[in-house]
Amino acid sequence: MHIVDIHHLTKYYKKDRGIIDISFSIDEGEIFGFIGPNGAGKSTTIRTLLNFIHPTEGRATIFGKDVVRHSKEIRRNVGYLPSEVHYYDDMKVIDLLLYSLKFYPKGDIHRIHELSSQLELDLHRKIEDLSFGNRKKVGIVQALLHSPKLLILDEPTSGLDPLMQQVFFRMLEDERRKGTTIFFSSHVLSEVRNLCDRVAIVKEGQLIKVESIESLMKNQLRSVILTIDHPEHVSLNINGIVKCEIRGNEIQLLYGGDIRELLNAINVLAYQDIRIEEPSLDEIFMHYYKQEGEKTNDL
Amino acid sequence: MIFRREIVRNLKPLLIWSGIIGGLILLTLAVFPQMAKQQETVGAMIDSLPDAMKKAFGMDRLGMDSLIGYYGIRVYLMPTLVGSIYAAILAGNIVAKESAEKTIEFLLSKPVTRFQVIGQKLLAVIVNLIILNTIIVLAALAGFQFAETSDVSPGTFLLLTLATFFLHLTFASIAFLLSSALRRTRNITSTSLGIVLFSYFLNVISAMSEDLALIKHFSFFHYIDAADIITTNGIDSKYIIVMVSIVIICLATAFSYFKKRDITV
Description:
The structure holds 2 protein chains of 2 kinds.
Chain A: E1 2-13, E2 16-27, E3 31-35, H1 42-49, E4 57-62, E5 65-66, H2 71-76, E6 78-81, H3 93-101, H4 109-118, H5 132-144, E7 150-154, H6 162-177, E8 181-186, H7 189-193, E9 198-203, E10 206-212, H8 213-218, E11 222-227, E12 241-247, E13 250-255, H9 259-267, E14 273-277, H10 281-298
Parallel strand pairs in A: 3-8, 3-9, 6-7, 7-8
Antiparallel strand pairs in A: 1-2, 1-4, 4-5, 9-10, 11-13, 11-14, 12-13
Chain B: H1 2-9, H2 11-30, H3 32-37, H4 39-48, H5 51-56, H6 67-75, H7 77-94, H8 96-100, H9 104-108, H10 114-144, H11 154-181, H12 185-208, H13 220-223, H14 226-232, H15 237-260
């Protein structure tokens, strides 16, 4: 059964584009990444799933129930972590978590202590005084404390230091072993890569692609920057070069082929420096756009 | 949960406002015995006031020599005007505070319907107003003890109490509608305070001149005018109908709008 099922979901804020005709589904027990730059429509999609906002067109179901009509039943088994965590300024951490717990009949107070000790969260501080990262931890505990069947996390790692990110990812792995489905958004591909089974990529409100991490890794792109005198005289004729640009004394390549083949070809050149990096999300999107474009041309 | 939370969160302001209103009522009533003793001087002083002013404060029809008249002229203003300001601030903040402080996402991600969210908040407003009005009544009853002889008829006092509560409820409903429809608490507070004060001054101005008498129908303060209630021993039924309709319309609109509204923070 699909845990989340989105059909042609469209949302306009008056005339401003939110998302356009998005469709995909998430299977039970899956960790599903939702990738896109800021303003791509990730939060809009998530807010529609939680019924904070109403779809302009299309529909979505969670656990097979319509997100608009059965929102309350759905939310019994959903944990949500917003991208920006805001809580009541008169509360201490423990007050907020206990308040949150009261909304769930099967809530268990031990879980608050268990989760906060994992995250090293001090329960007796005022939320107002917490740093962004610590507030995020409160949000994580709050999202997990009722052992939801579906976790919806909007940019969960922003604000967490790398060490805490590792702790958090381990917690997600634990959840997954219990059978929890996890849907989380991010604008960092590398972060998603180690954790997710599949990702959906969105840009400018539209779904570009849904792909498994395996195949995403298979045609993995590298950004190769070569510093060389007179780059205009260089010609590289190998397969897998997606994009080639010359800027000053630099050649910037987007390369998707065998990396050794490229290095062999470069080795004979009199280059001064070489940098091989992970391409930015934008470059990956360009790549996908191009692929989509070619497909349409073939038809 | 939400109801309990709102009661706890609003307890401090409630105590402060009821303390202020209750204290003012007690203090003002404590002066009455002296006033009553110096009846002639006070009477002469009132006579010397301009007619328009006498009308505006109901002094043309009420006498300072009776306890209920004194209550109508000097005291009644405090629970009605100050209480309405409290009601407007309370109801104006109760929903919009969640949007302004962006906690509404937290609340709505819990298994509650929007109806429950706003319904429990409305209930908290009503309970707060009942507590405030109870304190007003207790303060007034305690204050009446200062007078050597009391001519206050329980029926008339009950009418004044109900009128005060209805007035609070009316302003609270208008502010509550704004609160559930808009996002900015600052705008809501100033708008709802504006409505209360505008309504009050409309009533004062309309009483000053016969030419302006028509506009009194647009002021809720005129609907619950102490001189009217005390002299006729009743509240004009058409005004009750207007107030009840406004309460029902505002609340129904607030509920239906909040249910459909997009919550963006």
